[in-house]
Amino acid sequence: MSSEASSSADDRRLMWRPSPERVATTNLVRFAEQVGAHLGHEATEVIESDSIAPLHEWSIREPSEFWSELWDFCDVRASQPATEVVDDPTRMPGARWFSGSRLNFAENLLADRHVAERRPQAIVAWNEDGPTTSVTWADLRVQVAHFAAGLQRAGVAPGDRVAGFLPNIPEAVIAMLATSSLGAMWSSSSPDFGVDGVLDRFSQIEPKVLVCARGAMWNGSWMGSLERVRAISERLPSLGAVVVADYGGKAGSGDLVGIPHAIPWNEFASPSDQPTPDFAQLPFDHPLYVLYSSGTTGIPKCIVHGQGGTLIQHLKEHVLHCDLRPGDTLFYYTTCGWMMWNWMVSALASGVSIVLYDGSPFQATPTRMWDVVDAEHVHVFGTSAKYLALAEKEGLCPRETHDLSSLRTILSTGSPLLPQSFDWVYGRVKADVHLASIAGGTDLVACLVGGNPTAPVYRGEIQAPALGMSVEVWDSEAVELPPGQQGELVCTRAFPSVPVRFWNDPDDMRFRAAYFEHTARPAWRHGDWIERTAHGGFVIHGRSDATLNPGGVRIGTAEIYRQVERLDEIVESVAVGQQWDGDERIVLFVVLRAGVELDDELRARIRSEIKLNSSPRHIPKVMLAVPAIPRTISGKISEIAVRRAIHGLPVENADALANPESLAHFQDLVELQG
Fold it and tell me: In the predicted model, what is the mean pLDDT of residues 539-543?
């Protein structure tokens, strides 16, 4: 293709370019100017209007300089400074960051400056019925102090775990901040999970306190939570208190009788003699969160994230990549069971107000998300790629029904953002908006690739690698691939939010096996299949492992098997994701006992079992019976082989199967055709 033809194609794919005036006022340019002033560089040497590449290359080449400059630029609060930024950035894993520093995650999110400057509310909460409550910066500090005092009375100390089984409401944020202020660890799950799904997670970490609500909202109805809370708490002997927020009382869930150690929120967090939090000063890598893997090969892995790495990664992404500023409002549609909840809450550290939402994004009115954007004057709105695709199919045209004058940026993650969704956003939502497709994951509680507010947006592309992240695309021999070729997404140098460890993994064997033992040379292997573009951006083509990902929600197959195979009629099962209508749908194959048919009644029982004990998101869209399932010689079900077979792709590892003839049962199935 000639350069003229290539330029013409780029012009057609160009969706948005920020004005010079907008670029000049971004935090990214201000940061580059600080770097220039401190290190003797000119701003033009580390940033260009159409590329983040010079700044990114410097951030990888000089990690101590980059992360130190970022620490200062974002005004990280610490009682003791670091004696060394990073000891060896080539050590993967094992690099130590900001050695000697002492700080507190919650203190940075509740900094005095936000209260002193009298910014708007710190938190605004909505559900399907509309706005429910708000919390000012000053009141947030007081409520955190009161809840922290309750935790201390319950015996919570640094290193203990506090678990949340909560909808996305202010109490979740308050409890998390109180937990981290003491140096304890917070872990949360959303109320659409069943009892077994919650226990698969919380039973491993043995929380001392469980925080919940009476109910949650979904599709116009209140769903009671207390029966599940009762079942959960009865099977968590580590609990000393079950704190129940009043939210969801309309679910008619009754009183707290029969729930071990139950106590109403207002009683647990009663006013104390300490009106402001006492922030424990802790090492940079002190544990903050326990998040969970998808559970593909068993119960979910418990991923422990440190306070400092989480804080500085989120500050970087909020301030530099999303261009959030003090006084802005961020609304990310998420639940407490998705890492984007943790990511969103960290925006408080930048003086940003956050909007919480409980319920369906389409209930009450199909335009509910855009109603919130207008009503709360949202500057940055985040959601899943699946939501944007559904909004398009609903025929929404927010530019004609809403003002959206405050909206600067739309963030999308969870699954690759389809090219037609770019068209819809710029054609039907807003022409002058920064659409940033971002990607990372629970594993690093951060992004590997994402937005650049100073650069153009091209149709179907993620704009850039995240600063400080040495992102490459590798083939199977660990050779970096050029633009246009697909391969594994890897990160070749250490970064601050590499997990501290896995829970109950004393020798780090499972931790190393999860990320660092899949490549021919040391690197973090993320599990995404990706290509770099000619613009320096990226296109993600899906997961390179067997994790299910319908609608951007990561689901482990083992979570489905544990429910399905409870039924006497089913011998074994395999679940895979099928690319379908721009997304992924779950297809379940079952091997039945002799004389059993997969009829409508059995399908209904399967759906009910999965919904009750996992979540509605785990329910397969298609269920089919097969006589046998491919297994490896070691006896493991080969999900990847099944997935490739249903997509008509060659099964590259057929020689490793004990029964390769079984693949024929998954090929050319009429039920899976469009």
Answer: 77
pLDDT value at 385 more than 60: yes
Distance CA 547, CA 297 (A): 10
547 has a pLDDT exceeding 70: no
| Residue 296 pLDDT | 41
Angle at 169 (CA atoms; ends 265, 439), nearest 5 degrees: 140
Residue 123 neighbours by CB under 8 Å, 6+ apart: 134, 135, 140, 170, 173, 353, 354, 355, 356
> By C-alpha distance, which of 500, 466, 335, 433 is closest to 16?
433
Q: Is the peptide bond before 630 cis (omega within 30 degrees of 0)?
A: no
Sheet holding 446-450, edge to edge: 439-441, 446-450, 464-465
Identity of the highest mean pLDDT range in 207-216, 388-397, 579-588: 207-216
Question: How does residue 114 score in pLDDT terms, banded at 50, 70 and 90?
Answer: low
Rounded Cα distance, 263 and 211, in Å: 10
Task: Give kind and range of the element (H or E) at residue 174.
Answer: helix 170-181
589 burial via Cβ count (<10 Å: 0-12, 13-18, 19+): buried
Give 637 or 420, the one with higher predicted confidence: 420
Which strand (E) or helix (H) includes residue 440? Answer: strand 439-441
CA distance 538 to 432: 22
Buried b (16+ CB within 10 A) or exposed e, 365-380: ebbbbbbbbbebebbb
Euclidean distance between CA atoms 630 and 162, whole angstroms: 41
pLDDT at 597 over 80: yes
Task: In whole angstroms, give the CA distance from residue 296 to residue 545.
Answer: 9
Task: State percent of the chain over pLDDT 70.
Answer: 91
Classify residue 48 by its DSSP letter.
B
**Cα–Cα distance, 431 to 419 (Å, whole number):** 16
518: which DSSP letter? Answer: S
- What angle separates helix 195-205 from helix 600-613, to the nearest 10 degrees? 30
Q: Is 59 exposed, middle or buried (0-12, 13-18, 19+ CB in 10 A)?
A: buried
**pLDDT of res. 1:** 45
- Closest by Cα among 566, 584, 583, 567 to 575: 584
Collapse the DSSP code of 637 into the 3-class scheme (helix H, G, I; strand E, B; otherwise coil) and give the result: strand
Rounded CA-CA distance 169/131 in Å is: 11
Give the amino acid at 454. T
